[in-house]
Amino acid sequence: MKLTVQVNEGPYQHQASDSAYHFTKAALEKGHEIFRVFFYHDGVNNGTRLTTPPQDDRNVVARWSELAEKNDLDLVICVAAAQRRGIVDEGEAERNGKDATNIAPGFRISGLGQLIEGGIQSDRLVVFGD
Amino acid sequence: MATKKFMYVNRRAPYGTIYAWEALEVVLIGAAFEQDVSMAFVDDGVFQLMKGQDTAGIDMKNFSPTYSALGDYEVTKIYVEKESLEERGLTLDDLQHLVWEDEDEDWAEKDSIRLVSRAELAEVFAGQDVMFNF
Question: Biggest alpha carbon distance in chain A?
Fold first, then answer.
């Protein structure tokens, strides 16, 4: 089955990203196709490489990056949500005159159309959040 | 590819969290994709459609006028759950009058809001292809 996953909450505060990660990993292991993982609302905070969790805790952000690298996943952060919350890649830094970037490896910033396209192209849209 | 039935479910009050506003942003962007779009307002989500919203006291943008533009985006099916209104002491008269213009009937103005029971809304949900929850 072809799936798009939507993550609506940030890491650590909420378990949605953990659940989405475990779901995505399990779906891949079962041979399903992940068309895209789309991060919206505070979910965009899953894409900052500056998180530094305690060493005895899981690294939610790095885990997504590793899963993306291993499986060629498309991890998309909503640009409008990202701008509000300070998730920045090089293009955004240049456009908005910011002095730094913080996007984690494997993530990219793009528009809400990517979420809609995920709904159109996939057999299921699976949403994680409250 | 065939058109899909998209349902955007709005469950939260308009202010207090950003879900309502960011949901509306998805609907407006999604309108460009020419799918069969519906919206539903349930639970505290019915407060999103209240008329006469005034956010001056909380220094937030009052985005409620945007709902009246939905008809221009060809979002013409707006389901409001009857029980959610009643539980909050509201009636349809407390909500904005949302309309759309029917191109096939000489641009006749038609009501967008469909008042439905919880059971009826469940049936509407069952017939959808893609469900967004906000």
Answer: 44
